[in-house]
Design a protein that fits this description.
The structure is a homodimer. Chain A contains eleven helices and no strands. Chain A is mostly helical. Chain A folds into two domains: about 1-50, Homeodomain-like (Arc Repressor Mutant, subunit A), CATH 1.10.10.60; about 60-205, Orthogonal Bundle (Tetracycline Repressor, domain 2). In chain A, about 35% of the residues are buried. The interface between A and B is large, with 55 and 55 residues. Chain A binds a DNA duplex through helix 1 and helix 3.
Chain lengths: ~210, ~210
Amino acid sequence: MINNSVLETEAENKIKEAARKIFHRRGFDGARMQEIADEAQINKAMLHYYFRSKDKLFEAVFKEAAMKLFPVVILIIESDLDVDEKIKKLIHNYIDFIIDNPYVPGFVLHELTQNPERMKHFVASNVLMRPQKFFSQIQEGIDSGKYIPIAPLQLMVTIVASCIFPFVAKPMLHTLFGLDQDDFGEFIEQRKEQMTQFILNGLYKK
Amino acid sequence: MINNSVLETEAENKIKEAARKIFHRRGFDGARMQEIADEAQINKAMLHYYFRSKDKLFEAVFKEAAMKLFPVVILIIESDLDVDEKIKKLIHNYIDFIIDNPYVPGFVLHELTQNPERMKHFVASNVLMRPQKFFSQIQEGIDSGKYIPIAPLQLMVTIVASCIFPFVAKPMLHTLFGLDQDDFGEFIEQRKEQMTQFILNGLYKK
DNA sequence: GTCTATATAGGGATAGAC
DNA sequence: GTCTATCCCTATATAGAC
């Protein structure tokens, strides 16, 4: 007789994996429990057996997405690297992460916008952003005349925006500039190095 | 006797204005016809009287949003200004526009992502982006050694991202950095000038 | 644990009186 | 044109047999 706990875990994972796909693709309102069940090749009733409700299932998925999205930035930001290396690593690693998880940024941003209260307490208590070191490094560079004067948070937001935005705006790039799937892949690949150079060049004083 | 056509127009406008608010705030799936009716202080049945269906009403709202969002960029891009002036104008005007229409970018991006086909043909036929002149200007600057080598589209996307992203990520800035409403307003105001300087500095070679 | 059948609610849409 | 009542479908959720 096979241990039931193993099967249980497998079923749960299969459901969560399916839910992840559908929620990421359609958002909370757009997702259907039936579609998740189909994706998991499982009966719809089983969703409610393992996870009581759509809300609970969503919460599990959202948490994982948020926990994946933020730490990429945080770990690098808090490291001992110098500014140039941090920016280079940040852009490369972040874009690579989104290539593997293309729906995560749009999903997190949208759900956070739609229902800020639902997950705010969770994000706040689990994701502690401590950018002090990075911000200090920037400020020192400004004070020493190496960097142009810029609020560290402005720089930070610009870096993250540069990585995330192209993925959120992918349909726009397709419609307005005719970038197909392959073009987009090339565009993103090119972006890693060009953005690193552009942002570092923007930071350093002439 | 009052002319009926006037009242008709007033009712239609009241509905569209209410629909705009709700759709922008909740997206297509999240919006409720009842909520739109309440917002318009009108009976729910009247929505269907004036606009046949939720889809039709949404389409009207989406068109207006998209038609407002893109031309801001396009007009400046296609103008005869030089690169520095274009970038400065682009950032200032675009951010000012979003201050007045804070939900538009997230709305357009999300709906375009959720259902790319629904509006693609419309956007494609109504919004013609002709960035050739701007792109040529950039390329000339690169060839003459004035600018660093960067694909014009990469620059373009970065500029738009810098303007739009902070608004989409507003809840994140609130949660992670504790920016309240006033802080956010200051942040955006500061951003107009600092991003202009940062991006121009990034473009010019040392 | 897994399925079928069904309860229940919500929301888009319409019928019909006025 | 405007309202009430209601149709009807869809989607979440549960009951209950196996």
